[in-house]
């Protein structure tokens, strides 16, 4: 039986080195049959064309003992993510970055270690006013209705009963719990409303999300940023 770890946003080179052997010594004991899942804002494929820094980061991560899986966040280059070659893996479709780095697609339900994972990336960027469309943010950061419908269709096939949920942002009803009276920029993110519906409809053991840059465990929900936690510990 493989081991699964989960962490929050790594934003490319900004926070990827939390996965170094010095900061994540548990990783030295893992194999390619084990997994580290990143809950969005992977950010390694950031520029419109690959550069030497990106190649270095991909090789650095690919050479780690484990297999890396990630959902997309809002700070991603979606032109690059959407151009990745697709593979059938874990009973679903993934985007292939390298032989041991895979993008988990919105609305898929994957089976890993005989456990089911509903994955749904994306969110509205609160800092859009400081970003440039097509260079530092992409409209595809917010899930569209087709992606939402696909996710609900897959949940229906599982009778809304899965083991784990991994998203980038959180259900709308949790915004106050994590310390905000509303979204920081005051704008409605349709993703959070969609996730509220799932939270009220699905049966699951634990829900993990990133985006908020906090580490907080509150019952069935776990906000992740710098922590790297084993699924067996939650």
Which strand order do you get reading across the main beta sheet?
4-5-6-3-2-1-13
* Rg from alpha-carbon coordinates: 16 Å
Number of domains: 1
What helical percentage do the residues reach?
Answer: 10-25%
**Averaged pLDDT:** 94
- Our count of helices gives 4
CATH architecture term = 4-Layer Sandwich
**Roughly what fraction of the amino acids lie in strands?**
15-25%
Largest sheet composition:
7 strands, mixed
What would the CATH topology be?
Purple Acid Phosphatase, chain A, domain 2
Q: Total strand count, please?
A: 13
**Category by helix and strand content:** alpha/beta
User: Which geometry do the CA atoms define?
Assistant: globular
User: pLDDT under 50 segments (min length 5)?
Assistant: none
Question: What is the straight-line distance between the termini?
Answer: 17 Å
Q: How would you explain this protein's 3D organization?
A:
- This protein has 234 residues and is α/β, with parallel strands linked by helices.
- The chain has one domain (4-233): Purple Acid Phosphatase, chain A, domain 2 (4-Layer Sandwich), CATH 3.60.21.
- The chain is 17% helix and 24% strand.
- The strands form two sheets. A seven-stranded mixed sheet has the order 4-5-6-3-2-1-13. Strands 7-8-9-10-12-11 form a six-stranded mixed sheet.
Provide a quick synopsis of the model.
This protein is of the alpha/beta class. It has helices at residues 52-62, 78-81, 145-157, 190-201, and strands at residues 4-7, 35-39, 67-71, 86-89, 92-98, 101-104, 109-112, 115-120, 164-167, 206-209, 216-218, 221-223, 228-230.
